[in-house]
Amino acid sequence: MTRKNNNKNKLDTGRAFFTLEEGVCAKLNIPGSSRNSVPVTLLSISGGGIGFVALRHKLPTIHLGDRFTLTDIKTPQPLGTIDRADVSVTYVVDDSTKIRLSLGCEFINSNQHFLQRIRNFVKNRLLKLGLMQKQKIPQP
User: Fold this and answer.
1) How far apart are CA 127 and CA 135, in angstroms?
2) 2 in a domain, yes or no?
3) Of 4, 76, 99, 127, which cross-links 90 as Cys (Cβ 3.0–4.6 Å)?
4) Residues 6+ positions from 51 with CB-CB distance below 8 Å
5) Which of 4-13, 89-98, 116-125 has the highest mean pLDDT?
6) Which domain holds residue 122?
7) What is the pLDDT of residue 3?
8) Could you give the residue ranges of the DSSP H alpha helices within the chain?
């Protein structure tokens, strides 16, 4: 695994994980690629960023700090569909079969309303699953 050195603790805002069965997905737009976008499966989301997996052969070489735009992000209600989010790669994990690539990205250029909607979604999901007591999630 390759990880960008980042002193901020992005997990302070809480994180919601998704199962593959939920089919939470998005499109990763690759600048300068012959493909307009690559389908990805979301693994997690937080007020700091998003984690996803994609088929390796559909992706170009990806480096820490690369910037992309995710579009048509389909998450469960009450968050629902997010039209777009600009992200920067903070970690890359190659699976042992070399079939999939997992990426972790931080949100960039995002307004506070967008980030607060995500934090509220995470909090509600964790409460619903019984993984969190009713308490206030720290704000960044």
Assistant:
1) 10
2) no
3) 4
4) 42, 43, 44, 45, 102, 103, 104, 105
5) 116-125
6) 10-128
7) 53
8) 112-128
Q: Which amino acid is at 140?
A: P
- CA distance linking residue 133 with residue 100, whole number of Å: 35
Report if residue 103 sits inside a domain. yes
* Calpha distance 41→22 (Å, rounded): 10
Q: Are 61 and 82 in contact (CB under 8 A)?
A: no
Q: Name the 3-class secondary structure at 71.
A: strand
For the stretch 19-65, pLDDT in tens is 888 889 999 998 776 667 999 999 999 999 999 999 998 888 899 99
Quick check: is 101 in a domain?
yes
- For 101-121, letters b (16+ CB in 10 Å) and e give bbbbbbbeebeeeebebbbeb
Which runs of consecutive H residues, i.e. helices, occur in 8-137? 112-128
* Alpha-carbon span 135 to 51, nearest angstrom: 25
Decide if 124 contacts 78 (C-beta within 8 A).
Answer: yes
Q: Is residue 137 part of a domain?
A: no
Selection from 80, 89, 91, 87 nearest residue 117 by Cα: 80
Number of domains in the chain: 1
77 alpha-carbon distance from chain centroid: 16
